[in-house]
Design goal:
globular; 17% strand; alpha/beta; Rossmann fold
Amino acid sequence: MRQAKALKDRFPFLEITWMAHSEYEPILRMQPYVDDVLPWDIRKGRGTILSAIGKIRRSGFRWLYSVHRNDRSALVSAFSGIPFRIGGHKNLQFLYDFSLKEVKKEWDIKPVPEEGKFLFVPEEKKVEILDMLGGKGRPVLFCAIGASKRFKRWPAWSWSVFLDEAVSMGLQPVLLGSGREEVDLAGEILLSCSCNHEIVDMVDKLTLDQVCSLAAVSVMALGGDTGPVHMARLAGIPCIGLFTVRDPARYGHRGGNLVPIICDSPYVSYPEEPPLFQPLGTITPSRVILELQKILSK
């Protein structure tokens, strides 16, 4: 999103069509720097990339600008039929006419800062999500309880202790995530909370654009290495990230609005064989509460 905004800022007359997985289409259509979206539903099979390429060929695009360095993007470039193609690939650079580096220099595209607001949500969407929360009027705390792997998640007990304290501070915690495991985790968390009636459970109940809307109305976000935390950071709100690796920036978690908290004995990179224990259990609720208080005091 940062790079698309940089292009639009440099060339306001440019019409940008974004090719993306169909689940991201509603989010992209909310962005003022995106003119159209070309959705691709990978859930229907990887072969659907061929029909997507067909759509591209029929659309008459003049420029292709790819920020991904993977084989699939190179394949799209090769068969797109687009006259001028910009992108990068370690072994297939010949499938592009220009590299990203040389184009940014020639077009004078300024580096995009890591911090800032890059995810925009219309006011009516904010009103909708607040109505879903019941309109209690307290500052909303965005709590991303899940992650792709169990060892990247903060234990249920830690969440429960933290949430009880957050409610006592006058905040409105909202739990979010997706999938059966995270639904079960939310149930375990709420069972241990003394103030569970003050917590809103939205796990597996929101679409991705509604998650973005929730981030836009929240005062702060908390979570591990998971998509909703990325969204909250792009929405420009303060975020506390809980990580099991030494350098979260390696996995895209960076920016001035992110406070990273690293577990004891962190990994250099994620292990191929996930551990059976939960490393984030070494991050105490009191440590997170302290960071929360610092953020709210500002």
